[in-house]
């Protein structure tokens, strides 16, 4: 960490906005002054301006029962109506909402009028399957238009979706179905990934095999055309059912605090947290940030966010933000390098993408492949670039700026979380002078601070913990079914401030530099993974006596999962270390999903522990990163690290 901070501090390049960009920018410097005059009122103005309210609100923020916030709670709206019908009614029905590109090269462009019609039918279909306001629907789909259609159809009914990333295993899917008590699962036969069809339906079948759930139907979109097993009476083809329903559907208004979705994310303990978001405040902040942070002009821009809808970025900046703003966007099904390493750049050229939002890990993989690949395509349509998910190192920032952005497109480095719902820290293009590597400033209407362990502001030039000091519209409303965990995780530490779990530093100008998680959450390719969750998966295997997992820094993925495992004495001879390690890597992939598969597993005889029995991950991280092992004096047995390193040599 120390070397990373020194390195960042040496970064002194600045990129002020061009005069032309500044003169035409959506955001203006005055917006900060407006917000500073009163953040709740500022958000009320945004909510009125950016959204359609069936019943206007008269109350803005109710913080009488912290940490449970209510925003605009006597107002009523329909989230799907805001993303669809009102654009059609405003005369923009012919505008393309989604340019969908399948991995093998098939494509489909869907106008706002068509998307609205599809969602109306899907809402009628879900109603016919018994979905009512407040019911939970699990969505386990590839990146196809039906993913967005399904989310909006659920939202249109005032029901609650729980999108589960298609890379999660049957077991992870089942845990999420159970936690939310979902009654319907929407999936596909399979989707295209890396040049072939990757089946999805078998995971749903496996997830639902054992009894104890309340899923009545599985709605299956046909995409991969792979053969699937069928449970009569339970499974239904989407295309057959949707052909039979009524095309008319009137969107009803729901209270602003009606739950919109649950999205599971990793925490410091083994069990994923169901982060709950509601309607009016969430949609206000995603629409506001999508418009101002990306300098959006819906009538002319083509926007592309590469995130999967299984993550929060896909919820806020694929589904809700762009559609609430009436934007035209690209949705791409596959992987960046299929069928060739220039696939993304080819898509940018094909659709004339002007705003592009992706993760540093992707930028770093492209850097490794060399600039000649993107240089083979016409990327001159790009005018704003975004980054999300992890700190972007200045080298990757400069490469992104020069090679992808043609040396002129501003880069917005956006900090936020599943819990915050929408962007919280970011430059505004045309307003902020950019600093590579720093997320810079809170967006207007958001109060962020960097504090010490006692909650005191650290002052410029110092590091500490990132907090949000005031409630914000798109904040999580809790953890599904577990209010105590919500309080403990985010509010117990500082009482009146939201503890984000990230370390940060304020530079001499007061700009914010993110320094990574301060808890046991890892960030692998911009995906959050919990050390505890992977450890508990490892110890569930009969070979394993004990396991410790660390996030080791990795040139491309930011961090990588590295595990240290003690094999049970009774099993010690069963497999060689290499075999055991392969077997356990596969076990984790099967239990949690391929994204959690450890990069390496070291079979060790001991784990370094303090006298109170706490595993000293810092020392294991030294080993995993190939460094000299640090101070071992607090270990109960100081020879342990010697034993571990000897064995690994
Ligand atoms: C990290 C993703 C530095 C951070 C939207 C946070 C970042 C976690 C940035 C949330 C950024 C996200 N710079 N770090 N621009 N954006 N992070 O919930 O550690 O998947 O706490 O939300 O990602 O990850 P999540």
UniProtKB/TrEMBL annotation:
PROSITE patterns named in the record: AMP_BINDING
E.C. number: 6.2.1.1
Residues that hold CoA according to the record: 193-196, 313, 525
GO terms (BP aspect): acetyl-CoA biosynthetic process from acetate
Cofactor or coenzyme needed: Mg(2+)
Residues bearing the modification N6-acetyllysine: 614
Start and end residues of each AMP-binding enzyme C-terminal domain: 533-614
Acetyl-coenzyme A synthetase N-terminal domain boundaries: 31-83
Superkingdom of the source species: Bacteria
MF-aspect GO terms: acetate-CoA ligase activity; AMP binding; ATP binding; metal ion binding
Annotated binding of ATP, by residue: 389-391, 413-418, 502, 517, 528
GO CC list: cytosol
CDD domains: ACS (cd05966)
Function: Catalyzes the conversion of acetate into acetyl-CoA (AcCoA), an essential intermediate at the junction of anabolic and catabolic pathways. AcsA undergoes a two-step reaction. In the first half reaction, AcsA combines acetate with ATP to form acetyl-adenylate (AcAMP) intermediate. In the second half reaction, it can then transfer the acetyl group from AcAMP to the sulfhydryl group of CoA, forming the product AcCoA.
UniProt xrefs under NCBIfam families: Ac_CoA_lig_AcsA, PRK00174.1
Protein name: Acetyl-coenzyme A synthetase
Gene: acsA
């Amino acid at each position: 960490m120390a070397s990373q901070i020194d390195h960042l501090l040496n970064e002194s390049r600045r990129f002020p906005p061009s005069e032309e960009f500044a003169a035409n920018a959506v955001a203006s410097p005055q917006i900060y002054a407006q917000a500073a005059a009163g953040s709740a009122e500022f958000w009320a103005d945004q909510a009125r301006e950016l959204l359609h309210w069936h019943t206007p609100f008269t109350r803005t923020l109710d913080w009488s029962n912290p940490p449970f916030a209510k925003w605009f709670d006597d107002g009523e709206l329909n989230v799907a109506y805001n993303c669809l019908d009102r654009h059609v009614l405003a005369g923009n029905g012919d505008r393309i909402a989604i340019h969908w590109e399948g991995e093998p090269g098939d494509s489909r462009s869907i106008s706002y009028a068509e998307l609205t019609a599809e969602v109306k039918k899907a809402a009628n279909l879900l109603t016919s399957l018994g979905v009512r306001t407040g019911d939970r629907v699990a969505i386990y789909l590839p990146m196809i238009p039906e993913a967005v259609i399904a989310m909006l159809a659920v939202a249109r009914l005032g029901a609650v979706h729980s999108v589960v990333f298609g890379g999660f295993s049957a077991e992870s899917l089942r845990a999420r179905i159970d936690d939310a008590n979902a009654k319907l699962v929407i999936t596909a036969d399979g989707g295209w990934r890396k040049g072939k069809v990757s089946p999805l339906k078998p995971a749903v079948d496996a997830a639902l095999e054992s009894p104890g759930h309340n899923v009545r139907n599985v709605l299956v979109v046909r995409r991969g055309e792979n053969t699937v097993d069928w449970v009569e009476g339970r499974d239904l083809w989407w295309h057959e059912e949707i052909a039979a329903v009524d095309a008319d559907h009137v969107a009803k208004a729901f209270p602003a605090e009606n739950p919109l979705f649950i999205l599971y994310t990793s925490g410091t303990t083994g069990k994923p947290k169901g982060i709950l978001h509601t309607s009016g405040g969430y949609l206000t902040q995603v629409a506001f940030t999508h418009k101002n942070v990306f300098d959006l002009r819906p009538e002319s821009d083509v926007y592309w966010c590469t995130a999967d809808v299984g993550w929060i970025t896909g919820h806020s900046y694929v589904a809700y933000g762009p559609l609430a703003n009436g934007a035209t966007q690209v949705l791409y099904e596959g992987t960046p390098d299929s069928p060739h390493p220039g696939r993304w750049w080819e898509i940018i050229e094909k659709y004339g993408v002007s705003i592009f939002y992706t993760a540093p890990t992707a930028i770093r993989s492209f850097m490794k492949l060399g600039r000649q690949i993107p240089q083979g395509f016409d990327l001159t349509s790009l005018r704003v670039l975004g980054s999300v998910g992890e700190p972007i190192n200045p080298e990757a920032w400069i490469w992104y700026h020069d090679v992808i952005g043609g040396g002129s497109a501003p880069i917005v480095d956006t900090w936020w979380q599943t819990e915050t719902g929408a962007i919280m820290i970011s430059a505004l293009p045309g307003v902020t002078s950019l600093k590579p590597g720093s997320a810079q400033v809170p967006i207007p209407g958001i109060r962020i601070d960097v504090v010490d362990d006692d909650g005191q502001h650290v002052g410029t030039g110092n590091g500490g913990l990132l907090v949000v000091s005031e409630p914000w519209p798109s904040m999580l409303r809790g953890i599904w079914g577990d209010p105590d965990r919500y309080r403990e995780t985010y509010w117990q530490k500082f009482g009146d401030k939201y503890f984000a779990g990230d370390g940060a530093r304020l530079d001499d100008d007061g700009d914010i530099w993110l320094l990574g998680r301060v808890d046991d959450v890892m960030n692998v390719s911009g995906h959050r993974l919990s050390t505890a969750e992977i450890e508990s998966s490892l110890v569930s295997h009969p070979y394993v006596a004990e396991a410790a997992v660390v996030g080791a820094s990795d040139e491309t993925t930011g961090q990588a999962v590295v595990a240290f495992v003690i094999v049970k004495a009774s099993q010690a001879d069963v497999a060689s270390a290499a075999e055991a390690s392969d077997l356990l890597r596969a076990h984790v992939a099967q239990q949690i999903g391929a994204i959690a598969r450890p990069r390496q597993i070291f079979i060790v005889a001991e784990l370094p522990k303090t006298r109170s029995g706490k595993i000293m991950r810092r020392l294991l991280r030294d080993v995993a990163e190939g460094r000299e092992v640090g101070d071992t004096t607090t270990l109960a047995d100081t020879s342990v690290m010697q034993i571990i390193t000897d064995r690994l040599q």
